[in-house]
Every structure is written in C-alpha cells, then in structure tokens.
Amino acid sequence: MKDKYYTPEIEEFHVGFEYRLKGEENIRILSSNCTVDTELSEVKYLDKEDIESLGWAGQKANSVYFKKGKYRLVHWMDKPVRLVTIIEEYTGGEEIILRKAMVKNKSELKKLLKQLGVK
Fold first, then answer.
1. Are strands 18-21 and 28-29 parallel, antiparallel or unpaired?
2. CA dihedral in degrees (22, 56, 112, 44; nearest 10)?
C-alpha cells in the first residue's frame, strides 16, 4: 500500500488517540490537556501489525482473518475502504456478526472492541 498514513479530521481525536507529527517516527497518545494541529498530524491506516498488537492472531500468512478467543475479525484493506467485521463464534459452528464497520486506524478499532465488550 502506497499511502500508509493520512491526515485525520478533528472529529477523530479523543483521549487515547494514537497519532504522530508529520516527519517524526514517534507515536503520540492524546491526553486530556493537549492541543493538536491536525494539519501537522498524521495517522497510520489500520494494518495487520496493529491488529496483532491488540492480541489478535492471523490465521494464515498475509491473511485478512484474525482470531482472539471466541471472536474472529475479518479486515478488508482495500483502500480507501477498510471494512472490519467482528464475529462471535459459538459451539456447534454457530456464529453471530457483532458489527461491520469502517475502521481507519488502531484507535478506532480499540474503541469499537471496547464498545462490543471484546477483550
């Protein structure tokens, strides 16, 4: 993927949001008393490394399928569409799609997983 980073909209920022300043390598985490210039900031698009850093295991090399306990995550990385599907599996092969959502970055995925109670 050519564009690994994008300039975030102000609405994306929240306490705990991960971003970096353009031209820097260090990731910053937004705290409650700081101001951010969105034009100088950039955010990495959600990728396999981000998903795995949250404890999900890829089911195959270069896979879009990940597993964590009784949950599966499917991540379609076709830019600009980044669709994530969270599936809860039950014994007997049943499964329920908990949510399909557009997720642009790691911070958004963390927020979604928290809302769904996926740990």
1. antiparallel
2. 10
Query: In sequence order, what are the beta bridge partners of 68?
Result: 71
Q: Are 75 and 84 in contact (CB under 8 A)?
A: yes
Task: Read off the pLDDT of residues 50-90 as tens digits, 9 standing for 90 and up.
Answer: 999 999 998 776 678 999 999 999 998 776 667 899 999 98
Look up the pTM and report it. Answer: 0.85
Inter-CA distances, 102 with 5, 89, 108, Å: 16, 21, 9
**Radius of gyration, alpha carbons of the chain:** 15
Which amino acid is it at 113?
L
Summarised one tens digit per residue, pLDDT across range 5-61 is 999 999 999 899 999 999 999 999 998 878 888 889 999 999 889 999 999 998 776
Sign of CA dihedral 101, 12, 105, 118: negative
